[in-house]
Every structure is written in structure tokens, then in C-alpha cells.
Design goal:
Elements: E1 14-17, E2 22-26, E3 35-42, H1 44-49, E4 52-53, E5 61-62, H2 66-71, E6 73-74, E7 79-82, E8 84-85, E9 94-97, E10 103-105, E11 109-114, H3 121-127, H4 131-140, E12 147-148, H5 151-156, E13 158-161, H6 164-202, E14 217-220, H7 221-224, E15 225-228, E16 244-247, H8 249-253, E17 259-261, E18 269-270, E19 286-289, E20 291-292, E21 301-305, E22 312-314, E23 318-323, H9 340-349, E24 351-352, E25 356-357, H10 360-365, E26 367-370, H11 373-411
Parallel strand pairs: 3-10, 4-9, 16-22, 17-21
Antiparallel strand pairs: 1-13, 2-11, 3-5, 6-10, 7-9, 7-11, 8-12, 14-26, 15-23, 16-18, 19-21, 19-23, 20-25, 24-25
């Protein structure tokens, strides 16, 4: 830590080595047969992903002797640090335990047991992830393949510490920000479950939308769609600002949504001269991944939206399908993959062992049932409205997370004072 750092702190703040605030201890390892029962067992994942820990957030359990339980017991206010990580950015992340249920901590975790009441435990969860602390820990992390930090290194890390009343005020403000974020995350999860339930009902004819009662009709991919020309390219041919967006099957596998909005998504690009014979993607086209290492991802598809003036092609291991509007409606195409007959049918025609694939011929012949086109369109509009609501909540969540990051930067450096 630079000697002049203290001079940049606001009045009443001080740089305090962690060794003056807590006593460190490594966690324990035991035989694999002991896991799955016994006391809750905090490991690296829980520590990395949470600034503050409660017992219900810890799924793992381990059976230990009475002596081990006493030695590796975590109490309210104890601080857990992940001792090792594959990246410098994650080594030494801290999480404060704020519960009364006894838990234990594992061998890749360090426990910091407070030796005084100078450090407010809720503030600690934030302060120990402040930039000033993280920069020191990442610099101290050692290792080649993995980054590691030990007790001695942690004891020398300095935290910027205001007085106790200001710590409590900062902790309250940041806790309120966390509460807003957690509330939005719960609401988003609820909306996704509602949509999932609607899909299960409406895509199986278990429930019909008001005003629709016609029979579902049998069709095939070959009847619903025209198969257009796609191509392939190596990663070395792709880049940015080359001119034509390139939809790779891996991009489809990684998408949460079944709609690919090109107005919101930046694709890798390929030079126009390399794709002169390929069909350009249009609004409403369906792009299907025809290969995957996991059979459940074979046939995953996205309906393309927001093309506008953008140019894009479907590339490696994809099929590009353009729908017949008399059989399949825009907005519904994205959900054909979730029809029971389609999912089971794709798995039945997939071939391979380590990599699974489907042929154009077999997919074109695959039979499934769809509701009347007017009902398809209504279902598509309903799902689009649900997606728009979820997207709006996700935008609010992102903004709330950004606001919290700004609050942490300002409050944990004293740039903004609350007392």
C-alpha cells in the first residue's frame, strides 16, 4: 500500500490492516464420504457470489467430529475469504456470515474471526470488496495456473475505515440498494415462471386463448418453411466492422431468449465478399442450430427480429428457414421448438456420439401439430408482451446494479459522506 494513500482519505477515516481486526484460519478438508450430510458447509462458490451469507444460502453439508466442529465453526460476524481462484479478479473475495445457525468452512476458504468490534459486520461485506481492498488483494494473489492468497498476505491488506456510526450509515444505504436489486431479481424470476407456465399450457393445447377453438393441424418443417442457403467460416475470418453479421450455432446455444433482436445484439462479422452466395437474414426468419455436444441443444432455434438495415447471414452448423405465412405466423416461430412433437422428434433424428447433429432432410420431414395461424399470432403476441415486461425489469435491474456500484465507489472512499 502506498504511504501517501492515507492522505487521500477523508477526515476521520484511517487505513487499518486486516490483521488488526481479525484472526485468520484455514478451512478443513475431509474424506469425500463425509459430504452430503451433517452441518452446512460454506465453500468457495458461496463466498465468491455473496457479500453477506445466511445459512439458507449454503446447500452443501459435511459430517465432522466434535473437535472439527469446534475448530471450524463459523459464527455470526465471521468473515470468509476464498483462498484460491482461477483468476486474480476472484481471489480473496470476502463474505460476512450473518446468521446464528452453526456452519463450517472448507479448505479453499479462510475464516477471519473479528478480534474487536471496530468493524461493523454489515459494512465489512461491502468494505472488503471496495476498490482499495480488491486492488491490494489482487496484487498480493500468487500463483501460475491458479491465484492464491494466504493468512499472512491477508493480514497486511488495509481497509479504509470510517467511524462506527458512518460504517452503519453506509451499510444501511447499501443494504437498501441490495434490497431493491433482490426484489427486482425475484420479480423477474416470477415473471419467467409465469411465462414458462403459459408456454406449457398454450403450446400443448392444454389451455386455449379466449376466442380460439379450431383443431390443431399436422404439418412438417418442409411445409412450413423454405430452407435457405447457409455457410461456414473459421473464427479467424470473423471480427468487427467487417460488414455482415454472422450467426454461429454457438451463439444460439448461449442465448437465453428464443428471439434474436439484431437491433440489440452485436454479432461477430464477416466480410461481404466471403458470403456472396449466402441468403441474407430477414425479419421473421428462423435460425436453427443443427449440432451440439449436448443432444438437448440440437435444434435450438431463434426467430430473428430487428434486422432493419443490418445485414446478417446464418453460418456454421445452422439452418436458415423462411416461413410460409399461410401455415406459420410471425412471433410463433420462435416457440415451435418447444412443441412436444418437435422436441421429441428432433432427439429421435439426432445422430452422433460426442457431437450430435440433425440433417436437413430429416428435419424437413419432421411432423408436428400447430394451432390455426390466427391463434399462433395471438400466442406470439402474448409471449412478446411477456418478454417486453421481463426486458423492462431487466433494464431496471441493470440500472439498479449500476447505481449500487456508483454508491459503493463514492461511499466506501468517503467521496460522499452520510454523517
Amino acid at each position: 500500500m502506498r504511504e501517501d494513500s492515507a492522505a487521500t482519505l477523508p477526515e476521520g477515516w484511517s487505513l487499518v490492516p486486516l490483521g488488526q481486526l481479525m484472526k485468520f484460519q484455514n478451512g478443513f478438508n475431509t474424506d469425500k464420504t463425509a459430504y452430503g450430510r451433517g452441518l452446512r458447509f460454506a465453500n468457495v462458490l458461496e463466498v465468491i457470489t455473496n457479500t453477506h451469507l445466511s445459512a439458507h444460502m449454503i446447500p452443501g453439508r459435511v459430517a465432522t467430529s466434535a473437535a472439527e466442529t469446534t475448530r471450524y465453526h463459523v459464527q455470526r460476524g465471521d468473515v470468509l475469504f476464498n483462498r484460491t481462484s482461477e483468476t486474480q479478479e476472484e481471489v480473496g473475495l470476502a463474505s460476512v456470515y450473518l446468521d446464528d445457525e452453526p456452519i463450517l468452512f472448507g479448505g479453499f476458504v479462510l475464516r477471519g474471526k473479528p478480534t474487536s468490534d471496530i468493524l461493523d459486520p454489515i459494512f465489512a461485506g461491502y468494505g472488503l470488496r471496495s476498490q482499495i481492498v480488491r486492488q491490494q488483494i489482487m496484487a498480493a494473489g500468487q500463483g501460475g495456473i491458479r491465484a492464491n492468497i494466504g493468512q499472512q498476505s491477508l493480514s497486511k491488506i488495509q481497509i479504509a475505515l470510517p467511524g462506527k456510526s458512518e460504517q452503519e450509515a453506509i451499510a444501511e444505504a447499501l443494504s437498501d440498494a441490495d434490497a431493491l436489486i433482490e426484489g427486482l431479481e425475484r420479480l423477474i424470476a416470477k415473471k419467467r415462471l409465469i411465462k414458462q407456465g403459459a408456454m406449457q399450457d398454450l403450446l400443448t393445447a392444454k389451455r386455449r386463448l379466449p376466442g380460439f377453438s379450431g383443431e390443431w393441424v399436422e404439418t412438417t418443417f418442409g411445409q412450413c418453411f423454405q430452407f435457405l442457403r447457409t455457410g461456414s467460416a473459421s473464427r479467424s475470418q470473423l471480427g468487427t466492422n467487417l460488414g455482415v453479421g454472422y450467426i454461429h450455432y454457438g451463439d444460439i446455444h448461449g442465448m437465453r431468449s428464443s428471439v434474436l433482436d439484431l437491433s440489440r445484439t452485436r454479432l461477430p462479422e464477416i466480410h461481404p465478399l466471403q458470403v456472396t452466395t449466402l441468403s441474407r437474414v430477414q425479419d421473421g426468419d428462423l435460425v436453427i442450430a443443427d449440432a451440439s455436444e449436448d443432444v438437448i441443444d440440437v435444434g435450438k432455434s431463434v426467430e430473428v427480429r430487428g434486422v432493419g438495415s443490418a445485414q446478417a447471414v446464418a453460418g456454421l452448423h445452422t439452418f436458415l428457414l423462411r416461413g410460409n405465412p399461410e401455415i406459420v405466423a410471425d412471433g410463433f416461430k420462435a416457440y415451435i421448438q418447444f412443441l412436444g412433437d418437435v422436441r421429441s422428434g428432433i432427439e429421435s433424428i439426432a445422430t452422433g456420439s460426442s457431437v450430435y447433429g440433425i440433417s436437413k432432410k430429416n428435419l424437413a420431414a419432421l411432423r408436428f401439430r400447430v394451432p390455426p395461424v390466427e391463434e399462433q399470432a395471438a400466442i406470439g403476441r402474448l409471449f412478446a408482451d411477456m418478454d417486453a415486461e421481463i426486458q423492462a425489469l431487466e433494464t431496471r435491474l441493470l440500472k439498479a446494479q449500476q447505481v449500487k456500484e456508483g454508491m459503493m465507489q463514492n461511499l466506501l472512499t468517503g467521496q460522499i459522506r452520510l454523517v
